[in-house]
TrEMBL record:
InterPro entries: HTH_HxlR, WH-like_DNA-bd_sf, WH_DNA-bd_sf. This is DNA-binding HxlR family transcriptional regulator. Keywords: DNA-binding, Transcription, Transcription regulation. Residues 10-109 form the HTH hxlR-type domain. The keyword Transcription applies. It comes from the Bacteria. GO terms for molecular function: DNA binding.
Length: 120
């Protein structure tokens, strides 16, 4: 597809909306590398997120085709999450984004990138 500045910006914004949400990237990094995780494993791996928010973010990622959910018909219920092939293809994209962020000027890096690591 040939993009204009307007259509490229619009398409990029739509894609970024898929990744918006405080916990989505954390979830993705937990699932990269063909990791299959049960819901309870994700809860333990991301203790700061509430169960409600984790469910909401996983559902959105599933609706957007990034995460696949498998429900096993057993008691107690067993639910597993994994990245779809398309979701797994985000790994190199996010690696590039991290590399790009590391090249930010010091004042930008301190203000934006390292801000979450500083105590409030």
């Amino acid at each position: 597809m040939d993009y204009t500045a307007q259509t490229a910006a619009s398409s990029a914004q739509n894609v970024i909306r898929i990744l918006e949400g405080r916990w989505k990237l954390v979830i993705l990094f937990q699932l990269f590398g063909s990791n299959v995780r049960r819901f309870s494993e994700l809860e333990r791996a991301i203790p700061e997120v509430s169960q409600k928010m984790l469910i909401q973010q996983l559902r959105q990622l599933e609706l957007d085709g990034v995460v696949a959910r498998t429900v096993y018909p057993q008691v107690p219920p067993k639910v597993e999450y994994r990245l779809t092939e398309w979701g797994q293809s985000l790994c190199p994209v996010l690696d590039k984004l991290l590399s790009w962020a590391e090249t930010a000027p010091v004042e930008v890096r301190e203000r934006l990138i390292d801000a979450e690591q500083r105590p409030e």
